[in-house]
Specification:
Layout: E1 3-6, E2 9-12, H1 13-32, H2 40-47, H3 54-88
Antiparallel strand pairs: 1-2
């Protein structure tokens, strides 16, 4: 089984695939509850008269930033997996 070194850790193909799968699942989970999928009519009825708090706004910004960081990590994992598979040929 091939192995590569990423950020000082030895990573096998199995570990890489499991990590990519878990990151993909997490990203998909966040994507499903992203702002793009909100039914705004229902949202307005539910939250009429409720002002967003500063804490909630910060949380949304944090989630967007975290989502971006996870996507960047997934890109690294995907690149490493491609490199590993190419070297095994």
């Amino acid at each position: 089984m091939g192995e590569i070194i990423l950020a000082g850790d030895r990573i096998t193909v199995d570990k890489l695939v499991k990590k990519a799968n878990s990151l993909t699942g997490y990203l998909n989970g966040i994507e499903r509850v992203s702002l793009k999928g909100i039914d705004w009519d229902t949202f307005k009825v539910t939250w009429t008269g409720v002002e967003p708090t500063e804490e909630a706004e910060v949380s949304i910004e944090f989630l967007q930033q975290e989502n971006g960081e996870l996507k960047a990590r997934l890109d690294v994992v995907e690149d490493a997996l491609i490199t590993l598979m190419d070297s095994a040929k």
